[in-house]
Amino acid sequence: MMNSRHYMILSMLMLSLSAAAQGSSTTRSDSVAALQEHTDMWQTVGAPHRQNPALHGTAFASSFSQLYVEADWQHANKAFVPQEGKGHLLPSANVDTYLRLSDRTAVWGHASYLNGKQHDVTWNSTTDYRLLQPYVLADTLGGDTQRERYRFEGGYATHLGRWLLGAEMLFRADHEYRDVDPRMRGIVNELTLRFGAGYETGGYYWAAAFEGNIYKQRNSVDFYRELGVIPEYQMTGLGTEYARFSGDKRSLHYEGGGTRLMLDAQPQGGSGLYGHLTWGQHRYHRLIVENYTLPLTDLYTQKIQGVAGWKREREDRLAIFAHVEYQKRSGDEHIIGTSATSSFPDMGVLTMYKNHRLTTSLTALYGTPAWHAEACMGYRINSEEYVYPSRRLKAAHLYGQLQGERFVKASARLLLSARLQGFYAARVSDEMAMPFADMQPAIARLMHHTYDFAKANYGGLSARVRGDYCMQGYALFAQVAGGFVASSASATQLSASLMLGITF
């Protein structure tokens, strides 16, 4: 039987489909133009600006909606990141809508439901590993986990005189669990609100946006087998654990969130200089929830991202842009005193974990509405440190990427598109310092594995082919994609996906 959440997602899908049908009165040629406008590689140039809802309203000249189902599959012979598993099979149902209500007003939305499985997850019993790491609950056994996700997004933008105004809401609910020991369960609710404004002057849109985010997760691990339990580690970074509360403390609560500020300069026409700057900070508390509530760790993240470039859009298109992203993550551990009762005094905090990530790239994109080619070169470095006992892990890479796409009108009704991408990342430097003599064998193996994949070289190829059969105001489409990644750490990863749907 469908529960209320299933009815909600179905209602969202039907409402979006109805809105798309009412908003579409396009011909076949208009449908083809809208498809290319919303899906081609040229849209990567304007993607940063669309984070501001005020500018999102100027992103597209046409309405476009698609309703589709997707099956996403991935498998690796060795886990690149053990905490994320060796692969997955994640079927989903999705609807995306962008509707122009007038020349000055637009609305957009997304709704999706995903239900699938992550395979062979180890050293992680917490949902949202990339967001919360290293502060996760972990064990050596792991296993397959079921994942269920609901996502809703909706936005509105309008143009009042020279002013642009917009607002957007994003909501995500994740449920991840395992029905065999160790029976992990993570329930996530996350809400994000964005408000943006812009002003039109000097041939440019000058815009700013503010984002607020609230995050909560309930996380626990249970054991039902008669053979007993295994320890659950309260991980604190680079193989360390909060030993005092590891073992039998298996119920956690995460709460937090943060804010983000975005600044944009975008030419009103298709040509000119442009820029995007984002600064955000977030904080996530980890609390033990047993017969008492006890603060354990605090994770702080700060992120600065900038994009600057120049674009020219005529019969042909050219864009050259640079991207810089810096993220600082630091973690505090609470010093908990002893007590004869169930109340433990919080004696203070120590900043023990530090992580710095820097990514830079330079990209050139050239093409026409029928084809595009892109070349990108960049540098990235990831450095982690645990203060005491001292541990360090660092790796830096140079990387390059080439990709291209082609649209072909095979017949009056059939539009084919294909995209091919290749990349290679070469190690520049690496470093690891670990007190292996004092580490448990299982954790030592984990850190050797982590280092091997952090310093490895990577190369890969991926391809995507899509066919749209266009009719009066709508189209049926199918898309097949696949990819291959090889690592010098003697690991390979295969991926494939299939999409079937209808566009309006």
Describe the structure.
The protein is mostly beta strands and 504 residues long. 12% of the residues lie in helices and 63% in strands. The protein has six helices and 21 strands. It has helices at 4-23, 28-39, 43-46, 53-56, 129-132, 441-454; strands at residues 64-76, 87-100, 105-121, 137-138, 143-160, 163-177, 183-201, 204-222, 233-237, 240-241, 251-267, 272-289, 293-313, 317-336, 346-368, 371-386, 391-409, 414-433, 458-470, 475-487, 491-503. It has an 18-stranded antiparallel barrel. A three-stranded antiparallel beta sheet has the order 4-9-10, with no helix packed on it. A hairpin with a 2-residue loop joins strand 9 and strand 10 (240-241).
Topology (elements, then pairings):
Blueprint: H1 4-23, H2 28-39, H3 43-46, H4 53-56, E1 64-76, E2 87-100, E3 105-121, H5 129-132, E4 137-138, E5 143-160, E6 163-177, E7 183-201, E8 204-222, E9 233-237, E10 240-241, E11 251-267, E12 272-289, E13 293-313, E14 317-336, E15 346-368, E16 371-386, E17 391-409, E18 414-433, H6 441-454, E19 458-470, E20 475-487, E21 491-503
Antiparallel strand pairs: 1-2, 1-21, 2-3, 3-5, 4-9, 5-6, 6-7, 7-8, 8-11, 9-10, 11-12, 12-13, 13-14, 14-15, 15-16, 16-17, 17-18, 18-19, 19-20, 20-21
Helix content: 10-25%
Q: Using DSSP, what is the number of strands?
A: 21
Structural class: mainly beta
Which range does the strand content fall in? over 45%
Whole-number mean pLDDT: 91
Shape: globular
- Largest sheet, if any? 18 strands, antiparallel, barrel
In whole angstroms, the N-to-C terminal distance is 31 Å
Can you tell me the residue ranges where pLDDT is under 50 for at least 5 consecutive residues? 23-29
**What is the H/E string?**
HHHHEEEHEEEEEEEEEEEEEEEHEEE
Number of H- or I-type helical stretches: 6
Radius of gyration: 24 Å
